[in-house]
Amino acid sequence: MKVTVVAGNPKPASRTLDAATSVAEKLTGETPDATVDVITLGSGLLGWGDAAVAEAVETVSSSDLVVCASPTFKATYTGVLKLFLDQFAGDTGLRGVTVVPLMLGAGPAHAMAPDLFLKHVLVELGATAPAPGLYLIDSSYTTDSRIGDYVSRWGSTLLAAASTRSDLS
Description:
- This protein has a single domain (about 5-169), classed as Flavodoxin domain (Rossmann fold).
- About 40% of the residues lie in helices and about 15% in strands.
- It contains 5 helices and 5 strands.
- It has helices at about 15-30, 50-60, 80-85, 115-125, 145-169, and strands spanning about 5, 35, 65-70, 100-105, 135.
- The chain has a 5-stranded parallel sheet, with helices on both faces.
- Helix 1 (about 15-30) crosses helix 5.
């Protein structure tokens, strides 16, 4: 099973990337196969045809399971993540990919954001999202039990969905 982490934070090597990597590792028991720290793609995100962006899109679209993460900005996901997601083809760019929409924020006020905003765009691109999104408090995700609780509740569902793509290969 190919597992990829996507982090759409305006800062490289962010807590968002760390949290997404932690979710992927707890789900699979292994380090993710690939990581896309979107901000490192730079100005290539502003147009079409950039080789590094195309490679990142191929990495994500060929994955079985993707943890797609963003900090909460203006009650939704970041513009840099939107620029990256715009690179995927309509309703087929993520066909067959199982996704975990993950967002981090400073408090519980935006706890529904992963399901209300991020999950919808991922599904619109063809992804399968068989579990609710995950919202983490950025100051406590390393010490609270939210990731473990989520994996305990939804891990088998997510892994089963992701394995169907692997079985078809």
